[in-house]
Design brief:
alpha+beta, two-stranded antiparallel sheet, single chain, 97 residues, 55% helix, 2 strands, 12% strand
């Protein structure tokens, strides 16, 4: 059975987004995006490279709002995305210290 929607409760609001999307796009397209809705949707793309670029951009532009999306990606099986997320978090913690 294939998951259709993911629901995450964040700051008292239920957020629903698709488990996967299948739309044509490129890493370059995602790298130029600055819209929260578009970037958050790209974190659900079927291509792991697109998801990785999208979560990095989302974390940089919308650090707090990106949390439900990065948590969802950490729950998935792609270790390279996990390492990318951790690589983004550690420098931010060091700057805050």
């Amino acid at each position: 059975m294939r998951k259709k929607q993911i629901e995450v409760l964040w700051r008292g609001k239920a957020n629903q987004f698709p488990y996967r999307i299948y739309i044509p796009t490129t890493k370059n397209d995602v790298e130029t995006m600055e819209d929260f809705e578009k970037l958050s949707l790209m974190t659900r793309h079927h291509d792991g490279y697109i998801r990785e670029v999208a979560i990095v951009k989302l974390m940089k532009l919308f650090p707090s709002a990106s949390i439900p999306y990065l948590v969802q990606l950490l729950g998935e099986y792609v270790m390279e995305i996990h390492l990318t997320i951790i690589g983004q978090i550690i420098p931010q913690q060091n700057r805050g210290a």
